[in-house]
Amino acid sequence: MGQTLAQKIWDTHVVRSVDEHTDLLYVDMQLLHEVNTPQAFSDLRAAGRTVRRPELNLGTEDHNTPTVALDKTIQDPAGRRQTTLMRSNCEQFGIPLHRLGDSSQGIVHVIGPELGLSRPGMTVVCCDSHTTTMGAFGALAFGIGTAQVEHVLATQTLLGRRPGDMLVTVTGRLNPGVTAKDLVLALIAQIGTGGGQGHIIEYQGEALRHLSMESRMTLCNMSVEAGSKAGLIAPDDVTFDYLAACPGMLRGAEWDHEVAYWRTLRSDDDAVFDRHVTIDASSVAPQVSWGTNPAQCVPLDGSVPGPADFPDEADRLAAERALAYMGLTPGTAMRDISIDTAFIGSCTNGRIEDLRSAADVLRGRQVHPGVHLLIVPGSARVRAQAEAEGLDEVFHRAGADFRPAAGCSMCAALNEDRLRPGQRAASTSNRNFEGRQGKGSRTHLVSPAVAAATAVAGHLAQPADL
Amino acid sequence: MDPFVTHTGTGMPLRRSNIDTDQIIPARYVPYFSWHGHTNALFADWRDDPSFVLNLPQYQGATVLVSGNDFGTGSSRESAVWALQRAGFAAVIAPRFGDIFSGNALMRGLVTATVPEDVVVRLWEQLEQDPSTPVTVDVQGQEVRCAGITQPFALDPGARRHLLSGQDAVAETLKHADEIEAYERLRRPLLPMTHFTRAE
Ligand code: SF4
Predict the structure, then answer these.
(1) What's residue A74's pLDDT?
(2) Number of other residues whose CB lies within 10 A of the CB of residue B152
(3) Which of A147, A234, A327, B157 has the fewest beta carbons closer than 10 A?
(4) How confident is the model at residue B37 (pLDDT cuts 50, 70, 90)?
(5) What is the mean pLDDT of the segment spanning B108-134?
(6) How far apart are the C-alpha atoms of A396 and A387, rounded to whole Å?
(7) B175 touches chain A (CB under 8 A)
(8) d(Cα A362, Cα A400) in Å, to the nearest integer?
(9) pLDDT of residue B196
C-alpha cells in the first residue's frame, strides 16, 4: 500500500517510537514570536536547561509591534515587556531574531517562507496556529503550544501522534476574480470548522498547479480554520522557482541535489486517505463571511442567512448568536452591508501578490470618504517590494493608509490597530471571531480584491461592481 | 505538574458551541497573562452579561466545565488553558475540542474529556436542575460520571500516561538524548539554518 506525503515526512522524522501511538519527532525548524514564548523560556531557565540547536530556531517580532513607524516604541506595557523578553531570551540562547526595523522582520509565517526556511519535506513548528501556511511548500508545518515550545527548545523534538490523512481534491480552475481566499472560505463553509479535525489536509488537483506560492500559502494558512492539524501541497516547479529566488538559497550541485529529492515528495498513487472531499474550483465565487466563525460565509452575491436555514439545532443557535453579535438581519443582500474599515494584511493575505491585487483595484480610484482602508505589509520585504513596484504611490493616491512597518496589526488587534465596539470591517485576515479585531468588532472575511473594492464602494463589493 | 488520576467537583453548564480561544481569553489580555494571575480574564467579553453562567452564584466553585461542540478552536494561545486553570477548572467536557487547545491542556494537566453531544445535553440538564451534583472525571478509568450517567472517553495513551504520572515531558525526552544525537548525525546535510539568514 502506498504512502501519503504526510506519512512520508512524518516517518523520516521519527527519532524513536515512544509507544504504539506516540512518536518522538525531529523538528527541522522552529519559528518564534514574542507573544506565546516568554513562558517557555522562563520554564526552560527555571529547569536549568538550554536551547539544544539555536541555529534551527528563528525569532521575529510581529504581534505587538506598532505599524505606524519603524522606530516607535510599543505603547502597551505588557506588549513592550513581551518584546523586551523576546530580545533578551534570543540573546541569551543565541537564537537569531528579526526585530522591528530589520529588513527581514515581519509576520512569522510570511518571513519563514520568504527567507527560504520552509522547504519541501521539512518539519516546521511555531507557537502559532497559522504555521500551517508553510505546508504550501510540501513541509509538515503546524502550530504548537507554549509547553511544546519549551520541549522543542530543549530537545529539538516533539512528542506526538500522527494525524489522519484527508484529501481535498480541487477540480477545475478558479475563474478570473476568484482567489485562493475564496476557495478556502468556500471549502470551510462546505466542511465546517471541525471538518479537518485530527487530520492533515493534502490538496491535490489541477487547480492547484495553477496557483502561485502566495495563493497556496493562503490556502494552507486557513486550513487550520477547518480544524485540521496542517495543510499540505506537494512541491512542483512553482515551488522550486519560488525557493530559488530566496536569499541565501543553495546553488549549483547542492541545489540540484535537493530538487531531485524534493521531486520525490508526493503521495503515492495508491496512497489511502481516511477522508476525501472534492471541491470544484470553477464553481467558487467571491466569498464573504457573515457570522463569527469562518464557516459562516456565503458568496458575495448571496444574502445573510437566517437561523431557520440551518437544519442542525447547534448551528441554528450559533447563527442566532452570530447575527445578534454582527448586527445583521436575515435576508439582507451582502452587498447592502456598509463597512467603516477595510483591512488588507495578515499572514493570510499580506504578501506581495495580495498588495498587487489591491493596487489593481485602487489604481485611479478613491477610497470611500466614510472608510478607513488600512494596508499593512506582511513583512519588511513585502513592503520594500511594494515600494519598488510603486504600489505605495497607488495606495497613497487612493487615500489608503499604507503602513511603513510590517506586522499582524488589525488581524489580532494586539497593537494599536483595532476596531472600536460596533465598527464593521471587511478584512483579509483569517478569523471573524467575536472581538477578534477589538472588543465588539464586527469582521467580514474577504479576499484582498474584495476588500479594496469594498473600501471604494463603502459597502461589500467586488472589483467588477465598481 | 501534579499527577491527575481522578477528579470530582461540581460542574458548570456552558450552553454554547464554537468557543474559540479568543473567547476563552481575548487577545488583549494575552500579553499580561504570562505573569499575572488575571483569573477574571476568562471569557472576559462574555462576563459583561450578568446572566452569563460564569457569573451565576450557583456555579461558583465549579471545577468541571461542560461545553457544546468545538471548544478551544482557533489560536494556539496556551494562556487559554492557564485562564481556565486559574479560574479553578480541572477538566472540560465537550463533544469536540480544537486540536492545539486539547494538546496544550493535557500537557498542563487540564483534562479534556470528549463525550457524545447527547451526553453533554444530559449533563447540562442535570447541572441546571441541581448545580450541586458532583461530576467525576476519571483519567485512570477513562470515564465521566455524574448522577446516573457513566460515559467512557478516549484519551491518547501518551497523554494519559503523562497525566497519571505528572512527569515532565522534557525530562523524559532528555533521557533519550543519545537517540536524538544519532538521528542528527543522519539528517539531510543541506537543511537550512537560521544563523545564515541574519543578513542585518
Ligand atoms: S497575522 Fe493574524 S493570524 Fe497571522 S500570525 Fe499574526 S495574529 Fe496570527
Answers:
(1) 81
(2) 12
(3) A327
(4) low
(5) 97
(6) 11
(7) no
(8) 9
(9) 64
Which pLDDT belongs to residue B199? 43
Which CATH number fits the domain B6-167, given the four candidates 1.10.10.10, 3.40.630.10, 3.40.50.12580, 3.20.19.10?
Answer: 3.20.19.10
| Range of weakest confidence among A48-57, A248-257, B20-29 | B20-29
Dihedral-angle region of residue A144 (phi above 0 means left; psi in -120 to 50 means alpha; beta otherwise): beta
> How close B52 gets to chain A, by Cα (Å)?
14
B79: exposed, middle or buried (C-beta count within 10 Å: 0-12, 13-18, 19+)? Answer: buried
Q: Which of A77, A85, A96, A3 is nearest to A36 (CA)?
A: A85
Rounded alpha-carbon distances, angstroms, from residue A438 to A29, A80, B181: 32, 19, 46
Say which residue, A425 or A206, is predicted with more confidence.
A425
pTM, full prediction: 0.95
Give me the percent of chain B exceeding a pLDDT of 90. 76
CA triplet A178, A184, A186: central angle to 5 degrees?
75
Q: Is B128 on the interface with A (CB under 8 A)?
A: no
Burial call A258-270: b when 16+ CB within 10 Å, e when fewer: bbeebeebbbeee
| pLDDT of B171 over the 90 cut | yes
Q: How far from A103 is each of A70, A111, A406, A432, CA to CA, in Å? A: 11, 10, 10, 30
CA distance A359 to A397: 11
Q: What is the pLDDT of residue B198?
A: 44
Q: Is the dihedral of CA B191, A180, A184, A224 positive or negative?
A: positive
Q: Which atom of ligand 1 is nearest to the CA of A346?
A: 1
Mean pLDDT across the stretch A282-299? 97
Residues B29-36: what's their mean pLDDT? 64
Give how far B152 is from chain A: nearest CA, Å.
20
Q: Are A205 and A171 in contact (CB under 8 A)?
A: yes
Nearest to B194 among A36, A58, A198 (CB): A58
B151 grid coordinates: 460515559
Q: Is B185 helix (H, G, I), strand (E, B) or coil?
A: helix
Q: Which chain B residues in 86-125 lie under 8 Å from chain A, judged by CB atoms?
A: 96, 98-100, 103-104, 107-108, 117
**Closest CA relative to residue A6, chosen from A221, A279, A265, A205:** A265
In the structure grid, which three cell numbers stand for residue B60, read together? 461558583
Task: State the Cα–Cα distance between residues B103 and A153, nearest whole angstrom.
Answer: 17
Check CB contact under 8 Å for B100 and A143: yes
A148 membership: H or E segment, kind and range = helix A146-155
Output the CA A412–ligand 1 centroid distance in Å: 6
Of A76, A227, A433, the CB nearest to B98: A227
How confident is residue B200, by pLDDT bands cut at 50, 70 and 90?
Answer: very low
Q: Of A293, A261, A232, which is closest to residue B71 (Cα–Cα)? A: A293
Query: Cβ distance A298 to A182 under 8 Å?
Result: no
- As a whole number of angstroms, the distance between CA A166 and CA A169 comes to 10
* Strands A164-171 and A199-204, bridge-based pairing: parallel
